[in-house]
Amino acid sequence: MSDQPKNKTTVNIYGQQFSIVGHESTSHMRLVASIVDDKMREISRKNPTLDINKLAVLTAINVVHDYIKLKEKYEALERQLQEKD
């Protein structure tokens, strides 16, 4: 993957601009930023008194939780497929 050229894009997350550099397409990086922004706004609506640091940490916790749940489902499906072979 390191042989691929890096792409750079600017995104807006929760009212702040960030420059992101990576091997993924700029549309992928924008999608990721959009999901983070949406999640931060969702949590902020439910907890309007949170400062930005706590909001960022809670967003990270929520996103990692979602990731772990999806990974567990994926691994369970993989096991089911292996059992059928």
TrEMBL record:
Keyword Cell division listed: yes
Domain of life (superkingdom): Bacteria
Signal peptide: none
Compartments reported by the entry: Cytoplasm
One Pfam family it belongs to: ZapA
Gene Ontology BP term (one): cell division
DNA-binding listed as a keyword: no
Key words, A-Z: Cell cycle, Cell division, Coiled coil, Cytoplasm, Septation
Function comment: Activator of cell division through the inhibition of FtsZ GTPase activity, therefore promoting FtsZ assembly into bundles of protofilaments necessary for the formation of the division Z ring. It is recruited early at mid-cell but it is not essential for cell division.
Assembly behavior: Homodimer. Interacts with FtsZ.
Family: Belongs to the ZapA family. Type 2 subfamily.
The protein's name in its UniProt record: Cell division protein ZapA
Gene: zapA
